[in-house]
Specification:
Layout lengths: L2 H11 L3 E7 L2 E9 L3 E5 L14 H4 L3 E5 L18 H15 L4 E6 L1 H12 L4 E7 L7 H13 L4 H5 L3 H10 L6 H8 L10 H6 L5 H9 L18 E6 L7 H11 L3 E6 L6 H4 L1 H14 L3
Parallel strand pairs: 3-4, 3-5, 5-6, 6-7, 7-8
Antiparallel strand pairs: 1-2, 2-4
Amino acid sequence: MTVMTHLENLDHRLRGGEHLAEINGFDLHYTVRGSGPVLLLPAPGSGPSVGYLIPLTALESHCTVVYFDTRHSGSSSGPDDPAQYTLDHFVADLEALRVYLGVDRVFVAGHSGGGHQALAYGIAHGVHLLGLIAIDAIIAPDALRMVELLRRIEAKRHEPFYRAHPTYVDDAMALMTGSEAPSLGRLLEATGALYFHSPERAAAVFATMEFDDQVLEYTQASAFQNKNLLPELAQITAPTLLVYGEDDFHCDPITQGARAHAVMPSSRLEVIPEAGHLPWLEQPAPFATACARWFASLPA
């Protein structure tokens, strides 16, 4: 293969649209949108397809965004072995995709469990980073987080939506703390409103989400999102944007965002008012402004 043919093949891999790549023994589905430096953006990893994140125009206006379905989610295949769904496996997939695309340095972003992957990638592969964006990311799934999570749920009882649905909080708590492991669809049906500052939006958003309960079982068995990243976050020297919805009960801006920011000298923390776990949907303009401000602060 000539050098020109090799470059043409690499260029094809980053053309706009949908693609399949053989990565670490499985077929990885990805979608390319936007223009600029390459930004890799994985699905959360625990079941949802990356489709609910498309489009993130606040990122596409600055970068060529490579949205991808993590192993066994969306249109990606994956091994039928729960031992192959650890955090290390997801980080290895991110790195293998970077190599496949032929890009030496990239931005990496992620939401929730995808943010957990992005930050873990930064710890392991910082030499290949232009920057990181963690959106309502799981940082430290510890006792402090659980106390704050329960406090935030209890506080919602007094809001109009929950006064109109008086059993909602108790039913959600019973499902989340019960011995039975519910499907992701059932879990979101029972708890979805809690993820939003405006809970009425939950039904429409989650109704269109595609997810795979098999990979949820695999990632739970492998403790995929159970690692506390705080002790290692100081190793990340690349510019990092931490974005949190002020009303996020699941990955809150205090025990997750603020604690991460405190140990990361290279980070900026943006808290979006009147937004829950999906701030780009509830507050698109403030979210876009936060991203634009961060990109503008980066070295040329």
